[in-house]
Q: What sequence folds into this?
């Protein structure tokens, strides 16, 4: 039989006789595959991955360190756009990738997992851990030059006697509900463009090349920059105007998303950038939320109240990518095309966020308590005596240490969080060859796990902040360790992570479990740390202002770097090398912080600022 070379590489022929036995010649690569892999595992010869992706091309070469690697070009024939109708019009939604590239291809990079940190990689690892390192240095310096510590003391860090004038009660339930919903809306506005920013700017990349910057990264970073500016404006002019902050920010999000939708349709990057920046101003209300929750809650209730606030944060973090992904699916997008043939990718998501914003504004008009209940007059009087940016009149060493820990640990958490969100997609899409469509859903698994655990955390009672932080950061480290894989050869990695179905599913499941634990532990530690630093640190108006500024700043930096500085090696061991030093540094800094505060005495108080652990019955008594 005269068989073509392509037919031989597919490992079969068109002959269907039941007892016909053919002896087919094999080339060097096929002989090597048969000698290394079992005979029943010939998926490489059929050019198909375990996820069903068709391998278009295979290239073997070496990276800059001399390690072997395999570059695969994959594509899913099932996802190609439907054939055109007789009138010449395509059935694919306008503006989608299927319309622009019916035979879209993606590149996968398979390596053995041996991590060699060069100058660039070492700088990235140091950048991730630098906030924690700086916090440890500052805490040690404050302790060295201060004599306000009794190093023979030990104690559990649960309560403090700072700010005794605050009411010992929790905020009204209606106000807490609105704060949770507003936090959800604020994060939904930021994350709703995560999965569509590259599509929204696809036709404008020539402008990005002229600027030397990726436009999708700038679009992602616009909202956090607006959040920083909004924090300053609200802290300066609107802290004593609850209705203006709550209702105004909701209307601002609605207006900015409607204008952003017009910018998408007109392909105006300046309009999109401006509206994302304008919508980010609403993020400044997060500072307002934390200040009022701190002032209206007793120290025993504050951690739980903060946990509820972060539950809204978690829900918004998931809802943005989920909403954009659902509206971009083929069935829903085709239905939307019937309603509006000119609809582009991301436009329906922007209109949905705008509608939700208007709904939250209506909810706020019924849920917001009166100024007397929120103690607006007391806050206005305090800000008149001392502006929000000014520290307390008597800043003890403990207050400075709490200030440093609160502001710098949020930077470390944000950098780790953004690194995982970007790198996890790369690991699933490029290393496991799932493609970016399936990889996005895989990342949502980790985000959903965080939402569930955050909701569970709101029901935790009578546990000290130190124990909570220690548990959450231990979970974070365990999650990073679960993501680690023993280095293998390139051929063995190709078999276990791409071709062999059982091992691929197991390795992906283990990676997602580790990712879920890491991401959840990273985010869950925020509430107890913020709560405790407001108990022993300066007043909430000052502490939360600098904390929120740095949070938005690091969120913007992480959003930009996550797209601009993608790792050259998408193996999950590279992600582990990036995250593990920072996770360990955060754990050590937290232990140092709590231990130092446990040994401190406030010279203006008769008793230590840290009290011994009490039973729940004694506490209620």
A:
């Amino acid at each position: 039989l005269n068989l073509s070379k392509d037919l031989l590489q597919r490992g079969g022929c068109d002959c269907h006789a039941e007892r016909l036995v053919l002896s087919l010649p094999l080339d060097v690569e096929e002989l090597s595959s048969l000698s290394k892999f079992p005979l029943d595992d010939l998926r490489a010869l059929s050019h198909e991955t375990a996820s069903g992706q068709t391998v278009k091309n295979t290239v073997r070469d070496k990276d800059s360190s001399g390690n072997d690697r395999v570059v695969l070009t994959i594509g899913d024939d099932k996802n190609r756009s439907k054939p055109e109708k007789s009138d010449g019009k395509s059935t694919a939604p306008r503006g989608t990738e299927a319309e622009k590239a019916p035979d879209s291809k993606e590149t996968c990079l398979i390596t053995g997992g041996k991590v060699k940190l060069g100058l660039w990689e070492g700088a990235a690892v140091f950048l991730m851990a630098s906030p924690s390192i700086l916090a440890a240095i500052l805490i040690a310096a404050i302790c060295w030059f201060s004599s306000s510590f009794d190093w023979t003391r030990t104690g559990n860090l649960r309560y403090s006697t700072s700010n005794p004038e605050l009411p010992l009660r929790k905020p009204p339930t209606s106000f807490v509900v609105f704060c949770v919903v507003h936090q959800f809306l604020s994060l939904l506005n930021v994350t709703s463009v995560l999965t569509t920013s590259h599509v929204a700017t696809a036709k404008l990349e020539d402008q990005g090349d002229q600027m030397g910057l990726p436009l999708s990264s700038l679009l992602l970073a616009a909202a956090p920059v607006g959040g920083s500016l909004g924090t300053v404006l609200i802290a300066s002019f609107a802290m004593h105007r609850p209705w203006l902050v709550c209702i105004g920010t909701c209307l601002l999000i609605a207006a900015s998303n409607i204008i952003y939708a017009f910018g998408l349709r007109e392909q105006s990057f300046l309009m999109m950038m401006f509206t994302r920046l304008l919508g980010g101003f609403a993020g400044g209300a997060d500072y307002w939320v934390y200040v009022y929750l701190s002032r209206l809650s007793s120290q025993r209730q504050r951690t739980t109240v903060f946990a509820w606030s972060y539950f809204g944060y978690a829900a918004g973090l998931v809802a943005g990518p989920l909403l954009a992904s659902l509206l971009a699916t083929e069935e829903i997008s085709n239905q939307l095309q019937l309603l509006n043939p000119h609809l582009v990718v991301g436009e329906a998501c922007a209109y949905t966020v705008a509608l939700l914003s208007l709904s939250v504004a209506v909810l706020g008009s019924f849920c917001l308590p009166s100024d007397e209940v929120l103690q607006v007059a007391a806050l206005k009087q305090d800000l008149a005596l001392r502006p929000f940016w000014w520290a307390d009149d008597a800043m003890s060493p403990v207050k400075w240490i709490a200030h440093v820990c609160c502001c710098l640990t949020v930077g470390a958490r944000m950098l780790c969080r953004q690194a995982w969100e970007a790198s996890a997609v790369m690991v699933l899409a490029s290393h496991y060859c799932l493609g970016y469509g399936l990889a996005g859903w895989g990342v949502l698994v980790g985000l959903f796990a965080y939402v569930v655990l955050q909701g569970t955390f709101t029901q935790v009672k009578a546990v000290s902040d130190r124990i909570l932080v220690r548990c959450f950061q231990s979970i974070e480290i365990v999650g990073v360790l679960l993501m680690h894989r023993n280095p293998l050869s390139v051929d063995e990695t190709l078999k276990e992570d791409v071709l062999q179905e059982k091992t691929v599913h197991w390795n992906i499941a283990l990676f997602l479990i580790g990712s879920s634990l890491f991401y959840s532990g990273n985010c869950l530690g925020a509430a107890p740390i913020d709560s405790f630093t407001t108990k022993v640190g300066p007043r909430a108006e000052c502490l939360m202002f600098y904390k929120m500024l740095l949070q938005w700043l690091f969120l913007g930096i992480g959003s930009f770097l996550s797209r601009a500085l993608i790792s050259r090696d998408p193996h999950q061991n590279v992600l582990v090398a990036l995250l593990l030093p920072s996770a360990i540094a955060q754990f050590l800094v937290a232990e140092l912080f709590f231990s130092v505060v446990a040994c401190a005495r406030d010279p203006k108080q008769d008793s230590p600022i840290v009290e011994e652990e009490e039973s729940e019955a004694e506490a209620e008594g």
Q: What stands out?
A: Strands lie at 54-62, 68-75, 106-111.
